[in-house]
Amino acid sequence: MFTCWVLAGALGAVLFLYSLIDVHYFLRMFFTVIFAKFCKKPAHILDETTIYGLCTLNDIDTLLYHMNNARYLRELDFARADFYERTSLYREICSQGNGVVQGAATIRYRRFLKPFTMYKVTSKIICWDSESIFMEHKLITPYDNFVRAIAICRQRVLNCNAEAVMAALLERGVKQNGTVDGITQVTHVRPQMTEEVAKWLESNDISSANLRGPQNVQVITTN
User: Fold this and answer.
1) How far apart are CA 96 and CA 85, in angstroms?
2) DSSP readout, 75-120?
3) Which UniProt keywords are given for this protein, alphabetically ordered (predicted)?
């Protein structure tokens, strides 16, 4: 009888948790970070990292034949967590400031993912300024190497300078690579902002101006 009550209590606790929070999300995030920290090699801040996923029945939309559009953006959270951990980006930001938030994101869907299709998400930094770090993510199916979706995300750093954060990580990468037994150290060139990103930022600025509304509007009256 006692065992039945224990099992019923455990089941009730699980149901209660699932009713309050997205348990799968937090569990997967936890294991993503642990796996990146202990099972994967560290990556240079300008390297491209990769995680893998599978489109399950939890991911499909109401039409029941492809991944829900929102799930693509959700997958980017796990890809960024893997990237942050392997490159020490998040630790460096926190050592200089108070963290990082997603400032903006745009995604282009090119071809849908069917249920039970395996995919990979690649992540890399494409440029940065004093306030933000810009990342590009690609969701690719390995069997045909087709880019199913591509996203650009703006990571705003809080109470620190993104230039200083990147400079510290780039310097650390040079020291770690170094020159050993006559082998020339690996160098990474800072990427320039592409026209695509520049135009995207311009559209964001236009959107911000529209949301703020007209300023200093002069009203002209006639007699």
Assistant:
1) 16
2) HHHHHHHHHHHHHTHHHHHHHHSSEEEEEEEEEEE-S---TT-EEE
3) Membrane, Transmembrane, Transmembrane helix
Q: Which strand ranges, in their side-by-side order, compose the sheet holding 99-109?
A: 49-54, 118-128, 132-141, 146-158, 99-109
Report, as an integer, the average pLDDT of 17-44: 90
Domain layout of the chain by residue ranges:
35-174
DSSP 160: S
Distance CA 114, CA 60 (A): 8
CB 25 within 8 A of CB 70: no
Q: Mind listing the pLDDT tens digit for each residue in 80-137? A: 999 999 999 999 999 999 999 999 999 999 999 999 999 999 999 999 999 999 999 9
CA distance 41 to 35: 10
> Which class for 67: exposed (0-12), middle (13-18), buried (19 or more C-beta within 10 A)?
buried
What type of residue sits at position 6? V
Q: Spelled out in words, what is the top-level CATH class assigned to the domain 35-174?
A: alpha beta
173 burial type by CB count under 10 A (0-12 exposed, 13-18 middle, 19+ buried): buried
